Amino acid sequence: GPALVWLRDDLRLADNPALAAAAAGGRPVTVAYVLDDAPARRPLGGACRWWLHRSLTALAADLATRGVPLVIRRGDPAEVVPALAAETGAALVTWNRRYEIAARELDATVKAELIGRGVRAESHNGHLLAEPWTVRTKAGEWFRVFTPFWKATRLLVDDAPGPIPVPERIVAAPDVPSLAIADLGLAPRAPDWSGGLAATWTPGEAGARARLAAFLDGRLVRYAAARDFPDASATSELSPHLRFGEISIRTVYEASRHHAAATGIAERTLAKFQAELGWREFSYHLLYHFPDLPRRNFQPRFDGFPWREPDPSAIAAWRHGETGYPVVDAGMRQLWTTGTMHNRVRMIVASFLVKHLLVDWRIGEDWFWDTLCDADPANNAAGWQWVAGSGADAAPYFRVFNPVLQGEKFDPDGRYVRRFVPELADLPSAVVHRPWQCDGVKPGGRGRRSYPAPIVDHAAARERALGAFSSLKAGA
Ligand code: FAD
Question: Where is the Photolyase/cryptochrome alpha/beta domain (predicted)?
């Protein structure tokens, strides 16, 4: 009988195990996406909704060249998916697994419902190099430390089969009604704030492949040396493509390995890049085994941390890039205009919120969730907890970044700051990260657009953060 493939965070044709299984043997296939807006399953933020709109559009076009429609529905998948299976007469429904607890519970419900109706339901691994329950310590436990986790994962991966190609033939099942992608209301209108995102990104499988090719051709060789410099264009910029599964993690892992071997890229450089893919795996490992990762401190002793009562004006200054610290403000404005932020700068702005402003990391995680195109249930929560010090294998809390020195170290000539903070564009490099030392820049200063004075003093904020942390230790 016919099959139904239910796509979620796997909007691609290549190396898509659920699609390949559904299409095997020339079985007629319905390819469906169901927009699920249930509050219980944390709805996508604004930037991701924009991305999804574009990604579905690209996927529908790719499928159309193969004569296959993309069926769009909306609602609770626990009802919509079994109903669609009945409508299409599917004897088999396939999907690739997800790892957030609410999604896992939903998928289990759908599976039970299908089986109850005599329909086969099959889940696959399309999102990770290794399933979180297969990576174990010698004692059979899950990992809380990255390095041994990644070592164990790589042993599994090196034995696993490589990526699978796009099915040669996908036979379309008879048409069923579909919403138009535009009916989902994912793209922003009035105001349409997506211009900067559209100028930065090409969502979809072809866009993902192009990013990978560009990374392998020019950037990988410089990766280990230059990845920390936000203006160096040395990283892959694959994260939103991986977030939506427009390219598979196995494809990226294998392609980087082959390319490095073929072109003689140093082992160390390749290992550095692959370790970042490893942090993604590790974040999912944590999310799977500690489902509250996006909400609760991984280290419970942080539950008593004396966060300050949220100060709306300080939080607004952080969100909008008006803190008076140029590298922080450049990062927050890059995020707002392009839907991404360089990793080094994510660490700096997150540290600033959590330590300089003593704001609970969950407030920052929420803002990133709404504004990042790669906003990811595992990576975002793990990233914030790592910076806050509350996470697994996290940065120690007492290491407080100095935003001026970080700026001077990783953006030495200020090019990154000048790109996103035009008020500072004509400042000499020597003061671009400390504009208060330059006479022309004053709040409301003449001639040049005003740039705010620092909203907190670094030395005082650092002392305050360390004091908060030591109160925690004393109480724990
Ligand atoms: P590359 O350096 O080219 O790395 C390749 C891939 O590895 C990335 O695309 C990503 O999938 C993965 N990766 C790299 N670094 C990390 C990391 N530290 N943790 C987990 N995976 C990683 N990444 C997200 O994908 N989504 C998020 O929501 C997210 N939120 C973050 C929040 C904070 C506070 C911090 C400090 C980091 C966050 N990261 C997040 C991790 C990291 O910043 C981004 O993955 C990276 O900047 C993406 O750029 P790239 O694709 O060029 O990375």
Answer: 1-129
277 CB within 6 A, ligand 1: yes
Torsion sign (Cα): 385, 242, 329, 363: negative
Predicted pLDDT of residue 102: 97
Task: Supply the pLDDT for residue 440.
Answer: 61
Q: Is residue 427 part of a domain?
A: yes
Give the active site residues: 276, 279, 307, 343, 361, 384
What is the ipTM, given to two decimal places? Answer: 1.00
Ligand 1 within 6 A of CB of 16: no
Longest CA–CA separation in the chain, Å? 76
* pLDDT exceeds cutoff 50 at 447: no
Q: Is the CB of residue 346 below 6 angstroms from any atom belonging to ligand 1?
A: yes
Distance from Cα 348 to the centre of ligand 1, integer Å: 14
Tokens matching residue 356? 């300089």
Domain total of the chain: 3
For the beta carbon of residue 393, count every other beta carbon within 10 angstroms.
Answer: 17
Q: 234 CA to middle of ligand 1, Å? A: 13
Is 0.90 topped by the overall pTM? yes
pLDDT at position 25 is 92
pLDDT digits (tens, 9 = 90+) for 387-411: 999 999 988 888 899 999 999 999 9
What is the 3-class SS of 264-299, one letter each residue? CCCHHHHHHHHHHHHHHHHHHHHHHHCCCCCCCCCC
Q: What is the pLDDT, as a whole number, of residue 267?
A: 95
Q: What is the mean pLDDT of residues 49-55?
A: 98
Point out the ligand 1 atom lying closest to the alpha carbon of residue 249: 11
Q: Identify whether 407 is part of a domain.
A: yes
Domain extent at residue 370:
300-471
